[in-house]
Amino acid sequence: MSELPSYLESVAQTIDHMIDRYFVDKTGQLNKASAHLLAAGGKRLRPAVVMLAADAVKPGCSDDILHAALALEVTHTFTLVHDDIMDDDKLRRGVQTVHTKWDMPTGILAGDVLYARAFEHICMANAADDAKIRAVNMLAKACDEICEGQHMDMSFEHRTDVTEGEYMEMVRKKTGVLYAAAAGIGATLAGGNGVQVKALYSFGLNTGIAFQIQDDLIDLLTPPEKSGKDQASDLREGKQTLLMIKAREKGLDLKKYQKDLTPAEIQAAIQELTDSGVIGDVKGIAAALVSDSNRHLSILPASKERQLLMDVGEFFVTRSY
Amino acid sequence: MSELPSYLESVAQTIDHMIDRYFVDKTGQLNKASAHLLAAGGKRLRPAVVMLAADAVKPGCSDDILHAALALEVTHTFTLVHDDIMDDDKLRRGVQTVHTKWDMPTGILAGDVLYARAFEHICMANAADDAKIRAVNMLAKACDEICEGQHMDMSFEHRTDVTEGEYMEMVRKKTGVLYAAAAGIGATLAGGNGVQVKALYSFGLNTGIAFQIQDDLIDLLTPPEKSGKDQASDLREGKQTLLMIKAREKGLDLKKYQKDLTPAEIQAAIQELTDSGVIGDVKGIAAALVSDSNRHLSILPASKERQLLMDVGEFFVTRSY
Question: How many A/B residue pairs have CB atoms within 8 Å?
Answer without folding.
Answer: 116
